[in-house]
User: What shape does this take?
Amino acid sequence: VQLQASGGGLVQAGGSLRLSCVASGGTFSTYTMGWFRQAPGKEREFVAAITWSGSRLNYPDSVKGRFTISRDNAKNTMYLQMNSLKPEDTAVYYCARHLRGSYYTHSAYDYWGQGTQVTVSS
Assistant: This one.
């Protein structure tokens, strides 16, 4: 299984970005998928997750109301729409495939994309 994340970049505070994660080599449509992020010097943080059927898990307060996760199983692709971006959203964003355990814990995910950098300037 390979996951390819893209869509990051430099954006001003208040702006928007849409991240994409394309999966290949596996059965994308039957797995819960998630987004995590990691800022320099910080632990990897849960951002969002979506079940195979499109149900969204609870977002953390840090992104609730601003970020929206979605997926298109026909395209083996997951998205993260990020609006009203803040400087504290600056991080490398990773997509991952859930294997077992808590959806909110990075250790529950088995395959990871390479990450895409999101930088929000103030």
